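cache lookup: miss for this entity combination. No prior model stored, computing from scratch. Input as submitted by user K.M.:
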Amino acid sequence: MSHATTTAKNRSAVVLFSGGQDSTTCLAWALARFSTVECVTIDYGQRHRIELVAAKRICAAVGVRQVQIPCDSFRALGGNSLTGDEAVANGLNATTGLPNTFVPGRNLILLSLAAAYAWQRGAHDLVTGVCQTDYSGYPDCRDTTIQALQAALRAGLDSPLTIHTPLMHLTKAESVWMMRDLGRLDLLAHSHTCYNGQVPPCGTCPSCLLRAKGFAEAGIPDPLLG
Amino acid sequence: MSHATTTAKNRSAVVLFSGGQDSTTCLAWALARFSTVECVTIDYGQRHRIELVAAKRICAAVGVRQVQIPCDSFRALGGNSLTGDEAVANGLNATTGLPNTFVPGRNLILLSLAAAYAWQRGAHDLVTGVCQTDYSGYPDCRDTTIQALQAALRAGLDSPLTIHTPLMHLTKAESVWMMRDLGRLDLLAHSHTCYNGQVPPCGTCPSCLLRAKGFAEAGIPDPLLG
């Protein structure tokens, strides 16, 4: 794993790309560092299909190849009949308050799928927007977890894979500044992060509030709201 | 990870269960050690649906709960249009000779899905039939890979998960003897391992030959052929 900003112009990278603010920032970061960049978007039954539309639009805007890989496992594993949990009508688990498609350790599976794709493409660099600063409740976003997963993927793929996590230790404001410094704030006009899937964003859900806080602290207007 | 034969009668275990010879042996091993055993079968588009039927039949025979989790990612990631590889009509990749649903590092994903399920069920013991003795060509079957994955899953799930690999260092003959010693050779009459999906098994594919060699070396007749 690496937070380094070394240039690797002779290498190709795969970005695990949801179309949200963090992975869009990672895409811009990767474009500045690697000679070839591809995006992998996992369609795991996101409640808001607009996320997939945003991901596709951003990849087209920067001219990178994007592949969409389905994964119907999360819907089956999420809080539903398999485990006996009750789901409520808004798609949130009644017990945990997490989306029904939330699965513990989900990032491990998403990154493993992206790593399998990267292996097939001969890419040894995988970029993901996981960030332990804002998501302390999710153990699969932690630096130690990503380091351990990198070791497992290196062994299991017999490949010198590096998982890059450029946002791991950044605040949301620092992430906005990174995007400014990369000169690609414009891309965030397409990135979708509202939990309620609204366009324009609802402005009141936890995701909208977190995003607004980051832009406010960075002293930069959110291009999505411009 | 543990090859130990300690009894854990107060614990529940999840077996990653394909219905093949190895995972059937693991199921018998787990039943002898844990107070509660469940099986997770991943439906990733196996070319021979008879494997899923065999898995279900064996679970019913021993009276354990079985859940089937779909995963359509492998079919998308396998040698096909995503990666530009040519697939041949018999479902094998023209370049590698592996099934089209083969994905590098596949065991990492299968085990991560099973671990997510185990977490939800409060089980901290996961059993898998991976074996580096016979499958030296698959880096995700190696002991070092499973150890690294265990570390990643422990970190990512924040859970004291143990991945048990009772067959890791056994020959096929030793695996047959284990089943004899567990008194459950009868279960192997249901287990399906023929690459060609034939009942009775074709007897000529690599999987049939490997199975036959194991029983021959063990000096025990294969109950599937009885």
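stored under new cache key. Chain B has one domain: 8-190.
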